[in-house]
Amino acid sequence: MRSSRLLWSVILIVALLTTSIFIYGFVNAIQTVVYPDGSNLTTPDEERIEDIAPSDDDIVILSLGDSLTEGTGDRSENGYVGVVKNLLEKNEEKPVFLHTFAVDGYTTSQLLDFISTQNGTRTSIKQANLILMTIGGNDMFSPGEEIIIETSREYMTNALENLDKIFAELQSLNPEADIIYVGLYNPFTEIDKDGEISLFVQEWNNEVFKITTKYKQALFIPTFDLFYKNTKNYLSSDVYHPNEEGYKRIGERIVKALQ
Amino acid sequence: MTNIYPLVRNEVLKIWKKKRFFVIVLILAVLIPIFTYAQLRVALNVQKQMGTEDWRIVVQQQIQDYENRVSSPRMQEEWKRWYIVEIQRLQLHLDQNIDPKSPNGVTFTNQFVANSVGLFLPLLVLVIAADLVAGEHSAGTIKLLLTRPIKRWKVLLSKYIALTIYVSITVLLLAAMSYLISGLVFGFNGWMQPVLTGFQVIGSELNINNINIIPQWQFLVMELGLAWFSSLVVACLAMMVSVLVRSIAAGMGIMLATLIAGTILTNMVSSWESAKYFFMVNLQTVSYLSGAVPPIQGLTLSFSLLNLSVWAMISIVISFIVFTKRDILN
Q1: Which positions, given as ranges, span the membrane (chain B) (predicted)?
Q2: B74-119 residue pLDDT tens
Q3: What are the residues facing B202 on neighbouring strands?
Q4: 3-state class (DSSP) for residue A29
Q5: Is the Cβ–Cβ distance between A107 and A159 less than 8 Å?
Q6: Which of A22, A46, B47, B56 has CA 20 to 30 A from B19's CA?
């Protein structure tokens, strides 16, 4: 009987305490969600990213840019980025890690904004040993629309300016990593009878190459030749992005260039 | 009031003697380590893939993944909405430099409570509530109980109070055990860690005008308050079923089926708007705190709480009417 009296008092006290806490929490929750009273958010005034440098014990690959780097069209892997990762894993005796930050449809201005403002991206850039990038295609061409070289050329100047800023920003964040820019190819060789598009794509590649010469970490990897003959064999079903085979060729070329 | 106190005491001790409560402790003691281990595996796996422990990179990666999914033309509209809101929520965490998933015991408890409120917690409550009245019928003790010179409504009221006591203790137990067990793995700190709350999802937009940074303990208390309320409503409904159906197994079956139907419904009713009047889809009150997209467009915390209250009220009224009027024959 005495034990049950003790048990009852313990249960009662615990229950009363917790119930009052729960009722308090319940009322508090209603106040917060249903009758909110403004926000106490402040804009963090400074960037709070620790000083980190890439480590030699492992290889961190960061991929930035548009759908080509995201791997659109490749059903099995992460596009050429995945190929590079697998090959490096085989060649080097170190663990290889991948940060895939590329987004379908990104333009140079979006990428510039992305690497200038996003804390996670900036942290990752600082840790990376190798940065892989494709960008610019979406500035000049919109998928599915007719290609008018004159219009595309108008967008080019601005895109190149942004690209220069992107390289500068990457270098200031991480002066050690290799920065690889994968050049554009011409997916429209079939309809490009007089070579007008090919010439324009090469014009862009040339201008980008000029920019990369200003930065000693930067490396321009051409892909134009890889997709010039038998283009269809290396493109996916959207006849725009590479297929597995196409990505494999890009990836292998990057790894060779790095050796 | 004079003679309800001993009745409540009697009921509470009866439940304790029936060892139902130890079943709950046992279930928690077995399941929480499993969930803790699963959580640990997730964390290890991310680290293995990304090669970093920096949460900013992990969150950024998640945002980029979601961005790519949203831009995929094959994505369903309602999923798209979920991803768009989630992107904004994660982005805000990045901008404010607040880790949404910092690994510690308190964060684990937070997430565990949020995930339990829809099904797991109600099931635990059922273990106690299902046989409160039906058990008396099957054991034959109902006659002994009702032949005493006490009004029937007082008997039932004492059972309700005892049930409330056990619901409170069950919710507390779930939180305490989850903190203690996961704390062994993830560490016991995290009470003062800042978290974001006050999200309002309007369509696929996240309204951030009322977002507040609060310490995590406060978030946990609010969350437990809401989870407690949801559990209480389930308890009231289970009580009604227990009064109406005299077999424990049948009563348990009915409640189980209803609750599980609720979790299935929440996964598919996004286009059937009047499903929001079912109590089951309203149980996830906790999700309004952390800014998750409600299962049906237009559900709000006030609606859910009101809806649950109405269900509980009706069930209480029915229980009292049936319990006081019914003939006890066998």
Answers
A1: 21-40, 112-134, 155-181, 226-245, 252-272, 303-323
A2: 777 777 888 888 888 888 888 888 888 888 999 999 999 999 998 9
A3: B205
A4: helix
A5: yes
A6: A22
- AA identity, residue B222: M
Is the Cβ of A38 closer than 8 Å to some Cβ of chain B?
Answer: yes
Domain edges within chain A: 1-41, 59-258
CA gap A177, A217 in Å, rounded: 7
Residues 6+ positions from B138 with CB-CB distance below 8 Å: B131, B246, B247, B248
Are A199 and A149 in contact by the 8 Å Cβ rule? The answer is no
Diameter over CA atoms, chain B: 72
Q: Is the CB of residue A172 less than 8 Å away from at least one CB of chain B?
A: no
Q: Distance between CA A168 and CA A114 in Å, rounded?
A: 14
**Which homologous superfamily is A59-258 in?**
SGNH hydrolase (3.40.50.1110)
The pLDDT assigned to A222 comes to 94
Is B53 in CB contact (< 8 Å) with chain A? no
C-alpha span between B16 and A11 (Å, rounded): 10
Distances (CA, A) of A191 to B166, B175, B180: 75, 66, 67
Strands A59-65 and A130-134: parallel
Residue B114's H or E segment, with its range, is: helix B105-116
Q: Quick one: average pLDDT of B9-17?
A: 91
**Do B225 and A27 touch, CB atoms closer than 8 A?**
yes
pLDDT at A15 over 70: yes
User: Dihedral through CA B155, CA B160, CA B165, CA B168, nearest 10?
Assistant: 170
pLDDT digits (tens, 9 = 90+) for B109-166: 999 999 999 899 999 999 889 888 888 887 778 877 777 778 889 999 999 999 999 9
Q: Alpha helices of A60-177 — where are they, by DSSP H?
A: 67-70, 79-91, 108-117, 119-127, 137-140, 149-173
Residue A144 confidence (pLDDT) above 80: no
Residue with tokens 């805000």, as numbered in its chain: B92
Q: Is A97 helix (H, G, I), strand (E, B) or coil?
A: strand
Structure confidence at residue B313 (pLDDT)? 97
Q: Give the mutation candidate from B5, B54, B62, B110 for the A interface (greatest A CB count, under 10 A).
A: B54
